[in-house]
Design a protein that fits this description.
The protein is α/β, with parallel strands linked by helices and about 180 residues long. It is about 45% helix and about 10% strand. The radius of gyration is 15 Å and the shape is globular. It starts with a strand and ends with a strand.
Length: about 180
Amino acid sequence: MVLFADFNCPYSYALHERLRAMGAAVEWQGVEHAPELPVPAAPPPDRARFEREVAEVRALAGEVPLHMPARLPSSHLALAVAARAADLDPDGAADLRSRVFRALWVEGRDISDPAVLRDLAGAAGLSPALVDEPGRIELARSPTGGVPALVRDDGRILKGLVGPTQLRDFLAGVTEGDVEGAW
């Protein structure tokens, strides 16, 4: 199973947290769904839309801690660092991904800031030098054009964020077709 997600997407964050809580084994593919976002982070270009998205995620995933960050960052460097970490240390990379998501969505940190990413890499037991030398990384493209998207081994796709029961059914293969949630 493959999860296509972006760090600066609240739906991706909530789905990532749910999958972690369920102990689901997924391959993670970083997708830069908003390449126009700035470095350093800045207020979202459409604050009202962003507030609606965060409110929707809170309503759908109340168990996931989620705060409205004041600034929305580019995720490009964070995604490149996460991809490089996955090549070197899959367990450390999984920890790093969780830390990057929480740094933005719980702590409100600027994940486009190399100093923040160095700190997170070190906390995940990875070399902070990954941030300075992430290498040339080809980021994934979502099979749906959006994030998050979870693709089962049989090719079925879950698009967006769904409730826990729908997610469990999808993971267990009970769901026969594609599933579309909020995104």
